[in-house]
Specification:
Layout lengths: L1 E7 L2 E7 L5 H8 L18 E4 L2 E4 L12 E3 L1 H4 L7 H8 L9 H16 L18 H7 L10 H16 L1
Parallel strand pairs: 1-5
Antiparallel strand pairs: 1-2, 3-4, 3-5
Helix pairs in contact: 3-6, 4-6
This protein binds FE2/S2 (inorganic) cluster (FES) (2 copies).
One FE2/S2 (inorganic) cluster binds next to loops.
């Protein structure tokens, strides 16, 4: 057993768990935060995406004990009914989901992705490494390509992200 301290959505938790426990299982099974979803459990779908120290991470691919002292944000920490984050509200407004299983990961990923774009990080489809440019639909699609939606709600997901990007990156 390993003792690990995780700060999740601003609250410190002392976790006593087998060293092999993934961050996703720690969040869901030990801390009861079931917003982060287990889709593939091997880094293929993005449903488990959370934000660790400001960076998006597939929580199924990393062990909880590797995050001693880290600050973790899950979908529960981004907003709540009546106080949604901009992206959460935009996903609702644009109908950016069908079954909703991928949605927590999509929103956590998009939240950190917008921070990456604001910081000027280029993507594989950026015209240059220096030019920040706008977040075109092509850029949003590429930057969100780690998050699969089996319902194929992609057009509405892009609409939701674009709306927030236009407000924040303009
Ligand atoms: Fe982690 Fe699919 S459950 S990437
Ligand atoms: Fe069903 Fe994306 S809304 S998988």
């Amino acid at each position: 057993m390993q003792s690990t301290t995780l700060t999740v959505n601003g609250t410190e938790h002392r976790l006593e768990a087998d060293e092999r426990t993934t961050l996703l299982d720690a969040l869901r099974n030990h801390l009861g935060l079931t917003g982060s979803k287990k889709g593939c459990d091997h880094g293929q779908c993005g449903a488990c995406t959370v934000i660790v120290n400001g960076r998006r991470v597939n929580s199924c691919l990393t062990l909880a004990c590797m995050h001693d002292g880290d600050a973790i944000t899950t979908i529960e920490g981004l907003g709540e009914p009546g106080n949604l984050s901009k992206l959460q509200a935009a996903f609702v407004a644009h109908d950016g989901f069908q079954c909703g299983y991928c949605t927590p990961g999509q929103i956590c990923s998009a939240t950190a992705m917008l921070d990456e774009a604001k910081a000027g990080w280029p993507s594989f489809v950026s015209d240059s490494l220096e030019d920040k440019g706008d977040l075109s639909d092509k850029e949003i699609s590429e930057r969100m390509s780690g998050n699969i939606c089996r319902c194929a709600a992609y057009p509405n997901i892009i609409d939701a992200i674009r709306e927030v990007a236009e407000g924040e990156l303009a």
